[in-house]
Amino acid sequence: MKAQIFIPAALLALLMGTSAAFGQYAVVVGGLNSPRGLTFGPGGRLYVAQAGSGGVTGKISQIPDPWAATPAIRDMVTGLISAVHTEGEAVGIDGLSALGNGEIYAVMALSNEALGFQSPLGHLLQVSQGGQIRDIANVGDFDFEWSKAHLNLASDFPDADPYAVLALPGSIYVADAASNTLDLVHPDGSVQIVAFFPANALADATPTCIAKGPDGALYVGTLALVDSIVFGPSAKVYRVDPQAADPNRLLTVLNLASVWAEGLGPINGCAFGPDGSFYASEFFTAPPFANGDVVKIPFDTPDQHISLTGGTLLFPAGVAVGPDGTVFVSNGSAELPEGQGQVVRLTAR
Question: How distant, in Å, are the alpha carbons of 163, 219, 242 from that of 216?
């Protein structure tokens, strides 16, 4: 599935060994297994999704005070399914988003229809502050069926891999990195496709994150992995106006997204800060698979990309920005060996 990046174990271990020599950030918590999505909830609590290390090791963890000198971490949800690719990459819970009332929405990777068995994979879950889980929608199978009905849009359809979620009052949005769609999930669990992201020169767009901009539009970052390896930074950020969406009209779905920023390394997470700037994690900036970074893009000048770490991160993923503008990012999202993932706080912004 396209959103999961499989790194040879020997190369991964080498890179994990070298990344610690650089500064530019402070480790908030370590010992995580494939940390992915990050989101802030009420009271400044930071939540992190861990895709796990196989079996039922996926979890959602809470960091009550990520600004503390020695932050605590506790698990809210454990026992989520975690599949491991032959190269060692974990596949499981990816995206997280919290509402102001404390409800957390989590999206699981892949599609049961594509895999051939039933599981929580591909599902959108709602999690209470007490850790209770409610299944909201089977987004993965919906997207798989949509891609099967639109085989002309991509060379590797049918496919589905829900990867990112954005929770807003009354509506939940999911980006699927394999069907290349932005989905709207209604409160009753029904799903509609509102936007499609066209392929790049060599491969699919692969949307991996969603953030709401200061203008009310949605901004979706893409991985563009193959094109970035071959041509250099090729990832794009698309703007989607939800007020102009018409899920019942395919022509609108295919043309709703417009390019807002481009020329970025593969984007694996994004968020807006309180000053309106857009922050994106770049999975790597220097192939093969090294020098991950977070870039800041001022809202009014989307062609300006400001490096915040100088490429000292390792496979960063989820990004969350605190009310004071402090940037947090998941580091080691495609890590090996087990327990090498981190949440870090950037010391430059």
Answer: 22, 9, 8
Burial class (CB in 10 A: 0-12, 13-18, 19+), 74: exposed
Render pLDDT for 257-307 as a digit per residue (tens, 0 to 9). 999 999 999 999 999 999 999 999 999 998 777 899 999 999 999 999 999
Token representation of residue 338 = 């087990």
What is the rounded radius of gyration, in angstroms, for the C-alpha atoms of the chain?
18
Instruction: Give the sign of the dihedral formed by CA 110, CA 83, CA 156, CA 8.
Output: positive
Tokens, residue 270: 């994004």
Give the pLDDT mean for 182-211: 97
The region of weakest confidence among 5-14, 206-215, 316-325 is 5-14
Residues 105 and 117: their CA atoms lie apart, in Å, by 23
Inside any domain, residue 1: no
Q: Is residue 4 part of a domain?
A: no
Residues 6+ apart with CB under 8 A from 113: 140, 141, 144, 145, 160
Q: What CATH number did the domain enclosing 327 receive?
A: 2.120.10.30
Name the β-bridge partners of 131: none
User: What's this model's pTM, rounded to 2 decimal places?
Assistant: 0.94
Assess contact for 95 and 127: CB atoms under 8 A: no
SS3 content of the chain, % helix, strand, coil (to 5): 15, 40, 45
The first and second tokens of residue 141, run together, are 């199978």
Peptide bond between residue 158 and the one before it cis (omega within 30 degrees of 0): yes
In the chain, the number of structural domains is 1
**Placement of tokens 């960091």 in the chain:** 63
pLDDT digits (tens, 9 = 90+) for 72-126: 999 999 999 998 876 668 899 999 999 999 999 999 999 999 888 889 999 999 9
